[in-house]
Input
Amino acid sequence: MKKLVLLFLIMISIHSEAQQTIDLYSSTIPNSKPSETKEIELKKDGQFFGYKSVSRPNIKVYLPEEELSTGAAVIICPGGGYGMESYKLEGIRIAEAFNSRGIAAFVLKYRLPNDSIMIDKSIGPLQDAQQAIKIVRQRAAEWHLDPDKIGIMGFSAGGHLASTAGTHFNKSYIPNSEGISLRPGFMILIYPVISMKDELTHNGSRENLLGKSASEEQILSFSNELHIDSETPPTWLTHTGDDTVVPVENSIRFYQELIKNKIPSEMHLYPKGNHGFVLSIPTDEWMQPLFSWMDKSGIVNP
Output
């Protein structure tokens, strides 16, 4: 009996370690200013759902069983219009699905743009995405990861954040004296906000990120379809044609530019389902084409 109890405690310890939470910054958070803003934990039907007013960013670590590990990893950016983060459905549930395929996952709780906590709210989320990439790459050996196979994934506005990280990596928005590459190894974009242009954007995401009177320079800078080049990471996208929240043209324009620049990419479009369509489909079902792409692209296999 004592041996069984000891084994149980060891298993709990391993599980806890595999899901440790790591603050992104050990001291001063860059681009921050003193504020009384308090983080809010959101619940739906009494169950944890996500976060609002995030000011202290972190990553939650999900490591697969050692015998399943492929060495690949994904940093997951939940969506929520840059006003909240759908952390459970577009974070935890996805991380667990990746783990079942031997892929490590890191759910990013990023700062939400807010003038009361940031000097420049437009770059706050990007700083946190870059810092997450930096940390995971720095600790790749510890977590048995291939530093070249660390990608980024985002849903909706989280897709905008992921695609920003994947198209703006040549400029470091964080302290990086070590010169660690901030380029994601690949991108996975799920019904993403891509553009800040009037005819394409999700107005709520743009207003939260750039404010009500965004300059033309800001709009162009954060319209990520305009920043694809030969160094842009391989990308997988999915969207529905009837999305009334984030027009499917966001994914289509991004994909077109990827193809123009000869970036290996794959896109799956569905006629119906509207925004957030994958949340009503079994995870294994909608992610199977993604896993196949990761396999044939050499992300999870040599």
About this structure: The mean pLDDT is 93.
